[in-house]
Amino acid sequence: MTKRIFRSIFLVALGVLAACVVMTIGALYSYFSSLYTAQIRAETGYLASAMERLDLSYLEEIGREEHRITWIAADGSVLYDSVADAESLENHGSREEVEEALASGVGESTRYSSTMAEQTYYYAMRLSDGTVLRVSGEQYTPWTLALNMGWQICLIALAAMALSLLLASRVAKAITKPINAIDLDNPEQTDAYEELTPLLQRLVRQRQQIQSQMEALAQKQREFTTITENMSEGLLVIDQNAEILSYNGSALRLLGAEKVEGHPHVLTLNRSEKFRTAVEQALAGEHSEMLLNLNSRICQLIANPVQEQNRLVGVVIMILDVTEKEERERLRQEFTANVSHELKTPLTSISGFAEIMQNGLAKEEDMRRFAGNIYSEAQRLIALVNDIIRLSQLDEEASPEERVEVDLAAAAKAVAERLEDAAARQKVSLTCQLAPAAVTGSPQILDEMIFNLCDNAIKYNVSGGSVTISTGLGEEGRPVLTVADTGIGIPLQDQSRVFERFYRVDKSHSREIGGTGLGLSIVKHAAAYHNAQVKLESTPGKGTTVTVTF
Q1: What is the rounded distance in angstroms from the CA atom of residue 251 to the CA atom of residue 445?
Q2: Tens of pLDDT along 336-345?
Q3: 177: exposed, middle or buried (C-beta count within 10 Å: 0-12, 13-18, 19+)?
Q4: In which region does residue 242 sit, left (phi positive, over 0), alpha (psi from -120 to 50) or beta (all else)?
Q5: How far is 421 from 132, CA to CA, in rounded Å?
Q6: Whole-structure pTM over 0.70, yes or no?
Q7: Whole-number Å distance between alpha carbons of 106 and 501
Q8: pLDDT above 50: residue 436
């Protein structure tokens, strides 16, 4: 640690020194460069002033001074140069500083030598006769300036390094001295840096952890017990003699058993034939699954043998409450039966009318009525099949429609226009209170949902009643669709079931108006498809209000 502290302090000192040297050279270069360019500009101004009054003899008289003087004609040819023969020099009209001087009166540029050790500054001024007077001089680059100051920089660097080594060594030792003095047997009693408090506390905790390691296995066992006790599934572990080694509370609860003491036989928990058969099969080395009726619940029992080196050492029994799963299966079977019944009724009618017509038993004047009945029953079958297909698609979220932005107000208005004739026949007034409300979803599914709600509100209304369709934004800006009627209403005991498939409050009335019993079920699934909530409020004899909040 001492070496790392020493190295860090030393490297920081060197870094600061290097930065200071670079910034100092940069500042000196900037300062001297500005002085140098100002000097050349002033000299150019003096020479230009003299040239306005004198001629070339003046330049030849002053000869070569510290800076190079060049006199350039307006076409770029060199008239005079203080260093080289003017006739041997190339045309200077393309030089940057000359172009600027000819264009604006003055120009300047800087060009570096090929070795990057020197740079030449050029300053040009246009005279009244159109010629250009240019003065140039060489100046050092920052790198050259640093090389010229090399021995001073080295001397400063050596002194700074020596001082850094001395200070870094002393500071490193002073920092590590209290750390080396820590009493590892009693770290909490050590008087050290405040910053070392977390380290000392950690040393204390580690000593405590070492002292508590003997309790780790027992703690793991307690954790396992806690996990199994919080499982909703029942767990039983028995040995090859069918004696209980481990269990959880869910197993006792599902089996309806009291708390067991010691390691009793597993059959003391349940003596039913199926339970005993599953245990015996597992003890014989076979996987076993059974369905048990336990305390009005349906449970699935899974028994798996546990073997070690081809030798049975025990059995793990899992008990799962599958009541809801079995209830769903019952509902599926009930749905199948309902579908069969709903299909059979119109098919029987169609078959009966067709048989009468085939056998020639129908009178000529009855043929049209029989054909109409067949058509009506066929349409009822088509509507039923379409509703079943739509429900299946919504169940599996397999609807092919693309989700787009739909205006509920426009969709509700379109449905209301389609139902105007049906409402007139029922002598029901249809009113729309529509405010803009956008929903992202399937236009067709939303149309079906609105249509079923409005169609039900008309069908189950009273003569002279009304249906009001409303759209808008509710709480937190959520789109809301409301369909309210003044119809016959729904009894309280039926309100929780009206969204079930084929459920009818008044079966005779439903068949009279031609309903399939799937309309509200489609509404429920269509709302779920759009992550919407459906709320129903109804009072018998006063009407029903259904609100869908997206």
Answers
A1: 46
A2: 666 666 666 6
A3: exposed
A4: left
A5: 99
A6: no
A7: 95
A8: yes
531: helix, strand or coil: coil
The identity of residue 218, as a single letter, is: A
Q: How many CB atoms lie within 10 A of CB 489?
A: 19
170 pLDDT more than 60 = yes
- Closest by CA to 317, choosing from 370, 285, 279, 260, is 279
Residue 537's H or E segment, with its range, is: strand 533-539
| Residues 57-73: b if buried by 16+ CB within 10 A, e if exposed | eebeeeeeeebbbbbbb
Query: Strand locations in 171-287, DSSP E?
Result: 234-239, 244-247
CB atoms inside a 10 Å sphere around CB 99? 17
Question: Which residues are CB-contacts of 58 (< 8 A; sequence separation ≥ 6)?
Answer: 50, 51
Q: How many residues does the chain have?
A: 550
pLDDT single digits (tens) 47-76: 888 777 777 777 766 665 578 888 888 888
- HEC per residue, 43-73: HHHHHHHHHHHCCHHHHHHHCCCCCEEEEEC
**Which residue shows structure tokens 């977390």?**
198
The tokens of 336 are what? 């199948």
H-run or E-run covering 315: strand 311-321
Q: SS3 for 137?
A: strand
pLDDT (tens digit per residue) in 292-337 = 888 778 888 899 999 888 888 899 988 888 877 777 777 666 666 6
CA atoms within 13 A of residue 430's CA, in its CB half-sphere: 24
Task: Measure the CA angle with vertex 494, ends 488 and 495; round to 5°.
Answer: 80
Structure tokens at 514: 């031609």
Residue 142 has pLDDT above 70, yes or no: no
Please state the rounded mean pLDDT for residues 270-281: 87
**What is the per-residue pLDDT across 72-94, written as a single tens digit (0 to 9) for each?**
888 888 888 887 887 888 888 88
CB 453 within 8 A of CB 468: no
How would you write 139-186 as a 3-class SS string? EECHHHHHHHCHHHHHHHHHHHHHHHHHHHHHHHHHHHHHHHCCCCCC
User: Strand pairing partners for 407?
Assistant: 438
User: Max alpha carbon distance in the chain (Å)?
Assistant: 144
pLDDT at residue number 116:
46
Place of tokens 């030449």: 120
Please tell me the least confidently modeled range out of 262-271, 321-330, 381-390, 535-544.
381-390
Give residue for tokens 């026949």: 425
Say if residue 544 is exposed, middle or buried (CB neighbours under 10 Å; 0-12, 13-18, 19+): buried
Q: What are phi and psi of 107, to 5 degrees?
A: -155, 155
Sequence letter at residue 111? R
| CA–CA distance, 170 with 282 (Å, rounded to integer) | 77
Q: Residue 445: pLDDT above 70?
A: yes
Alpha helices in 54-131 (DSSP H): 56-62, 96-104
Instruction: Report how far apart the first and last C-alpha atoms of the chain are (Å, whole number).
Output: 64
How far apart are the C-alpha atoms of 339 and 304, rounded to whole Å?
A: 40
Give the whole-angstrom CA distance, residue 322 versus residue 345: 35
What residues form DSSP beta bridges with 1?
none
Q: How far apart are CA 63 and CA 295, in angstroms?
A: 124
